[in-house]
Write a structure and sequence with these properties.
Blueprint (H helix, E strand, L loop, with lengths): L5 E10 L6 E6 L6 E2 L2 E3 L6 H13 L6 E6 L4 E4 L2 H7 L7 E11 L13 E7 L1 H7 L5 H8 L3
Parallel strand pairs: 1-7
Antiparallel strand pairs: 1-4, 2-3, 2-8, 5-7, 6-7
Helix pairs in contact: 3-4
Length: 150
């Protein structure tokens, strides 16, 4: 799905065993802004491989802590706002992301993610509607679409 203008990536939803909450992470660069683990796909990497890699890199969680449960059936695409496009520094070549979303379930409620410190600095279990209200506005439609179906 990667193309000239949209970076192919993944987003990972980790659901609490109570099935009512998800793991949210506070961004290191924007205090008070929360989101799900996500990242770009490496060349030759399948989306599920990228989801496992990103989850481990950003949160320290792997198969001993979570189970891959489902994949959202379509790519979700969004365009970055102008300030994000400018900050990317690639001359406007990339204008947004096309993402595959994955649902993972925590094996138990004592799961302890370890934010990587580069992308994320804190974590908490939250209800999906709380996360939708605390994610960057340009990401909100994708979050509403996927998290609204949980």
């Amino acid at each position: 799905m990667s193309g000239t203008n949209f970076r192919a990536g993944v987003v990972i939803v980790v659901r609490h065993p109570d099935l009512r909450r998800v793991l949210a992470f506070e961004r290191a660069d924007l205090a008070g802004q929360w989101q799900l683990p996500q990242g770009g796909l490496n060349r030759g990497e399948t989306p599920i491989e990228g989801a496992w890699r990103e989850l481990l890199e950003e949160t320290g969680l792997g198969p001993e802590s979570v189970l891959a449960r489902a994949e959202y059936p379509e790519w979700l695409v969004y365009e970055w706002p102008d300030d994000v496009k400018a900050a990317r520094g690639d001359g406007g070549r990339r204008i947004g992301q096309a993402q595959r979303w994955f649902l993972f379930d925590a094996h138990h409620d004592e799961v302890q993610p370890v934010p990587d410190g580069r992308e994320f600095v804190a974590w908490r279990w939250v209800k999906p509607d709380w996360l939708i209200d605390h994610v960057a506005g340009f990401r909100r439609p994708a979050y509403e679409r996927v998290l609204g179906s949980l």
